[in-house]
Amino acid sequence: MKKIILFIVFTAFITLSYVVSLRLWDSVYSEQSLPILKTSHKSTGSSTTPIVTDTLPSQPGQTENKPVSPSVPDQTSPSLPPPLTLSGSTFKAISFNKTPIISTPYPTLSFNTDGTLSARFCNSIGGEYTDTYGILTAPHLIQTLMYCIQPDNLMDMETSFVTLLQNGASYERNGNILTIQKNNIELVFESI
User: What pLDDT digit, counting tens, does each position of 13-59 carry?
Assistant: First the structure.
């Protein structure tokens, strides 16, 4: 009985800590706490120079204007193409650590339009993912718990896939080929 009460108290503490941290995060990073940039113009003879000021409350109800240097885009750097989105794409695995996958059905990976992914190796795997600067992360994946004997490396491939995404792995998409890798693990997928 003591273990059950201890478990309930611990669970309540964790839940409360989570809620408090979310509220703290929201209060720190809400739109109200972000600086507001305002632009005015200063006339000097025949030309007008834009002046950008940062309106950031130092105390509740007060505003403080500080000059901010205007951002001028670098005209010499080439423009980068927009990143390829993974959302709405489905792939089949074609190689694992440089070894082609020849058995069917192929393991599959889908990036859904709601910010979740779903995969099928031996088990069904799913959860939310983030794609930040070429790093693919899905730290809270859920999956079924079956064990498959065939093909030989299917369970190794599945375990590697989950480990890659839980810890964050780099990815590169070239046309219809998606490569996810970190350290000495590499999974290559082809769009289907």
Answer: 565 455 444 454 454 444 444 444 333 344 444 444 444 444 444 45
Backbone angles phi, psi at 133, to 5 degrees: 50, 45
The C-alpha angle with vertex 90 and arms to 86 and 93, in degrees rounded to 5, equals: 105
Q: SS3 for 44?
A: strand
Alpha-carbon distances of 102 from 17, 125, 152, rounded to whole Å: 48, 21, 11
CA distance from start to end of the chain: 54
Burial code (b: 16+ CB inside 10 Å, e: under 16) for 83-97 equals eeebeebebbbbbbe
Q: Tell me, what's the pLDDT at 2?
A: 73
User: Smallest Cα–Cα separation from 86: which of 51, 112, 56, 60?
Assistant: 112
158: amino acid identity, one letter: E
Q: Model pTM?
A: 0.56
Q: What is the DSSP string of 61-115?
A: T---EEEEPPP---SSSPPPPPPPP-TTEEEEEEEETTEE--SSSPPEEEE-TTS
Q: How far apart are the C-alpha atoms of 108 and 28, rounded to whole Å? A: 39
Q: How far apart are CA 150 and CA 117, in angstroms?
A: 24
